[in-house]
Amino acid sequence: MIVHSAVVVALLAHPPAVKTVAQYTLRVDSADLSGWSVEIRLRTVRDTFRLAMAAHPEYDDRYWRYVKDFTVSTGSFTKVDSAVWQIVAPHGMVMVRYRLALPPAPSPRAAWRPFLTPTGGLVGGPHGFMYLLGAERMPVTVTLDLPASWTIATGLTRTADPHSFTAAGAAALVDSPILAGHLREWRFVENGLSHRVCYWPLPDAVPFDTLAFVSSLRQTVHQALALFGRAPYRQYTFLFEDGAYGALEHRNSVTLGAPSKDLGSDPHALLVETAHEFFHTWNLMAMQPSEYREIDYRAQPPVSSLWFSEGLTMFYADQLLRRAGFQLHDSTRIAHLERLLTSYVNNPAYARFSAEAISRVAYNAAPGALGDYSASTHLQGELIGTALDLVIRDASHGRRSMDDVMRSLFDRGSRIDAASIERAVATVCRCRVTFFFDKYVRNAGTLAFDTYLGLIGLRTTLTSGPAVTNGEPDRDLRIYGWHAEDDSLVHLIVADPTSIWAKAGLHSRDGLERLNGVPVTTTSELRSRLLSLRIGDTVRVEVVRPTGPFATTVSIAGYERATVRIDSVPDATAQQRSLRDSWLSPRTDSTAAGFSSEDKSPRSSKPR
Q1: Can you tell me the distance from the alpha carbon of 392 to that of 398, in angstroms, rounded to the nearest whole number?
Q2: For residues 12 and 18, what is the distance between their CA atoms, to the nearest angstrom?
Q3: Helix (H, G, I), strand (E, B) or coil at 380
Q4: 235-241 and 193-200 strand pairing
Q5: Half-sphere exposure (CA, 13 Å, Cβ side) for 232?
Q6: Pairing mode of beta strands 109-110, 244-245
Q7: pLDDT tens-digit readout, 48-67
Q8: 186 CB-side CA count, 13 A
Q9: Which of 34, 133, 288, 322 could form a disulfide with 50 if both were Cys (CB 3.0 to 4.6 A apart)?
Q10: Cα angle, residue 275 at apex, residues 428 and 219 outer, rounded to 5°
Q11: Helix, strand or coil for residue 426?
């Protein structure tokens, strides 16, 4: 049996005087789920046009590599770039066909990568649709013809026909993946906006408390809308996939890995990650970094403000959930900050690399870009955001906070960079923050956190001792492997230049050949071998470098780790205590009205 999915896309070419109409048909054969075929009908008035596959700014999976059997019905074509096909044909109707052969799916699978199974799959988006160069901003109509038992979930705009959708242009088309199959579905309305929650379960899905699961999403949405006052979307779709990991934000949807076994243990298990990705709807998608291109088949350039786009999103994922009253792993803001600062002070990368430098290698950069250092723009940015929040609260006597900065940037609707963020902070707090941005954002400098905590009558205490877990000394395993697709060798990544591995002469991007004389061919094999080591063991490491082979012996040992504790300043002023009380007790908004839930599929779970 062959299952057909028809996608009809109407595009007008640029300039407006030149009109091109394109009709897309995407076909899935249920007897062959190795991929899908695409047919594009083009009626043109130009004899030369180009089709391209977009590169995602974060995860450029380069699915142009899996395009097979590209043909045109008339004329000729040339692949002029890795992701661009040029067609030369007489004016009139032209038929373009190709097949997207899905690569072998790893286990577990990243939630943003497409897949097909007998019960559904993830299709479309940048992994499946080509777009017409020169017609990127023209409206798009999408019609899907799927098996009767499958339902469709996507961020594409619905029409009266449940199988037809629209998009404002090519960017919206490729940014709206389509999850279809035997889905579970719930809906709620918040601030007059429709929100749809769709879950694709595995055949052996573990039951979980769906009422608690959906209710927690509603409360998260409520808090985000309360913060910003409005949304950059008219409708929003959550696309949850059993058996997958990770997540990826879109303009009005999000794909998230949601193993039912995790939700069965705790329906709120994925809430922090979901809140993070949902907040990206504003802070990354609506408030985009200045370097972002609207849509492009080329890899996006390095982005210098990801410390804000990612770090402040981490900041607010925590804040939104606290405001909604959820019990988090870090029971208080102080406990949360202690954990973050402990990670920060134990990593020498943050004193060596600026927030902008770390941001520039966060996306589309191979591991090891910082040499024998490893850093998180999420962690660094969240701490910078926390410090700025304290500066704003102090300068405004508690009347303003980082909330006002976020609203200001969103209301302006402009691209963001360090300069625009600095202006927004300075305007909100009516104070000068150039020194702060120069020291911690544009240049490398360790955050003087006692200075900022002191504004609310708090201070840190730093202690140091052997790293331990469950009372046992930790082995120094501050090294991991990375496997490039075009290289058979596992490459080492040294995470800390003070580790035993770096001291033994190993460096990031060394090609690993053998451990104790035994070849290591996969990253999982490397991890397993490392975990088998015990303190006092020795391991012979043989690597290859551009300069030639290198071998060394590493003696496995423990290592020192600092711990940060936050305490109150005994002589804090009344204003400092007042600011601290406000900071420790974030605003909790009232529960929104208008929520409704509708389960449109047979129950695979039950309330608890």
Answers
A1: 8
A2: 7
A3: helix
A4: parallel
A5: 21
A6: parallel
A7: 999 999 999 998 999 999 99
A8: 19
A9: 133
A10: 90
A11: helix
